[in-house]
C-alpha cells in the first residue's frame, strides 16, 4: 500500500503522461503514423507516444489488479468495482463485460476526462481574469 505522498507522485506522473499523449495525438507525426504505414517503422516522435501509452496501460492494469484484490462484493467503491462485479455475474460472461474492455474504458476516461477538465479550468480562470466583476 502506498502512502499519500507516493500516491500523489504517481498521479502527477500519470497526468504528465496523459498531457503528453493528448498533445502527441494532435501532432503531425501522429497523423503520419495513422496515414502512412511506412512511417511506423521510423524512429520518430510517435514511438515515444506509443511507449507513454504503454506506461499508462500498465498503470491502469495495476489499478484493476488492486481493485480485484480488494473487491468486496455488493459494496462497489467506484466504477471499476462496479464493472468488476458485472464481469463476475454468470449472465454477463458473453455480454462484452471483460477486463480488457474495462481497461480500454478506464484509459478513455483518463485521457478524455483529464483534458476536458484542464480545458474547462483554464477557460474559467481566463474568464475570471477578463471579467473580475463576476468574481
Automatic annotation (TrEMBL):
Its cofactor is heme. Transmembrane segments: none annotated. GO terms for biological process: organic acid metabolic process; xenobiotic metabolic process. Keywords: Iron, Metal-binding. GO terms for molecular function: heme binding; iron ion binding; oxidoreductase activity, acting on paired donors, with incorporation or reduction of molecular oxygen, reduced flavin or flavoprotein as one donor, and incorporation of one atom of oxygen. It comes from the Eukaryota. Pfam families: p450 (PF00067). GO terms for cellular component: cytoplasm. InterPro entries: Cyt_P450, Cyt_P450_E_grp-I, Cyt_P450_sf, Cytochrome_P450_fam2. Belongs to the cytochrome P450 family. This is Cytochrome P450 2J5-like. It comes from Thamnophis sirtalis. The gene is LOC106540563.
Amino acid at each position: 500500500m502506498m502512502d499519500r505522498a507516493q500516491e500523489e507522485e504517481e498521479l502527477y506522473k500519470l497526468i504528465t503522461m496523459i498531457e503528453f499523449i493528448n498533445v502527441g495525438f494532435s501532432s503531425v507525426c501522429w497523423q503520419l503514423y495513422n496515414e502512412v504505414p511506412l512511417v511506423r517503422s521510423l524512429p520518430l516522435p510517435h514511438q515515444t507516444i506509443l511507449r507513454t501509452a504503454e506506461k499508462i496501460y500498465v498503470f491502469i492494469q495495476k489499478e484493476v489488479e488492486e481493485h480485484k484484490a480488494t473487491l468486496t462484493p455488493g459494496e462497489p467503491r467506484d466504477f471499476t468495482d462496479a464493472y468488476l462485479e458485472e464481469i463476475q455475474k454468470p449472465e454477463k460472461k458473453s455480454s462484452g463485460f471483460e477486463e480488457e474492455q474495462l481497461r480500454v474504458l478506464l484509459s478513455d476516461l483518463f485521457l478524455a476526462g483529464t483534458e476536458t477538465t484542464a480545458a474547462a479550468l483554464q477557460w474559467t480562470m481566463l474568464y475570471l481574469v477578463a471579467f473580475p466583476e463576476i468574481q
